[in-house]
Known about the structure:
Chain A is an all-beta fold. Chain A is built from no helices and 11 strands. Chain A is globular, with a radius of gyration of 14 Å. Chain A starts with a strand and ends with a strand. By secondary structure, chain B is an all-beta fold. The model of chain B has no long low-confidence stretch (mean pLDDT 92). Chain A binds chain B through residues 4, 31, 33, 35, 40-45, 48, 55-56, 58, 90, 92, 94, 96-97, 99-111, 113, and chain B through 4, 32, 34, 36, 41-46, 49, 51-52, 90, 92, 94-106.
Amino acid sequence: DAGVTQSPTHLIKTRGQHVTLRCSPISGHKSVSWYQQVLGQGPQFIFQYYEKEERGRGNFPDRFSARQFPNYSSELNVNALLLGDSALYLCASSSPVASGGAAETQYFGPGTRLLVL
Amino acid sequence: AQSVTQPDIHITVSEGASLELRCNYSYGATPYLFWYVQSPGQGLQLLLKYFSGDTLVQGIKGFEAEFKRSQSSFNLRKPSVHWSDAAEYFCAVGARGYSTLTFGKGTMLLVSP
């Protein structure tokens, strides 16, 4: 089975531009999460979507937005890019567990490396 | 709020020697704990996870981790390191019923010949 796929693999933008990153989850997974990993740090949670609804949001400005499509793929959009947005953006998919059950296990894609100049 | 501390930024181990990577967590309820590995320029690969039950969990590539509630720790171990284990290792904590993960800052493992 294919794992989580992300596109593009690399991207260079300039300050003030807009960027769209794409993610396709593992087949059968209905939840997609986005993380930002700045160089030298662990990943930080940005968004989670389940069944096209936002399920969680991390501490990121409104310049960051996302959506999930009927086929469970997802897009992350970042407006008005800043130099500090340069990072590896990771997408993870998971399959929700029953209410009260254990935490879901997230499976990560290879990431999109964004460089803002 | 939950948090994860990985006290060691870098660790160098000789090939064939044993390895222990430290992870301490802070979480008000029952934690769900994970270890991921990241090779340069790659995404994260799940090594193992702890949800409940036996506090010693086995993972892929010969790794294991032990959950110690009294010490709020979830240290990763391997009895004999191979050169291919050189990578960055991340400990993460999750909450019941949700998949949002809080990661530590990672430990970079270097393997010397």
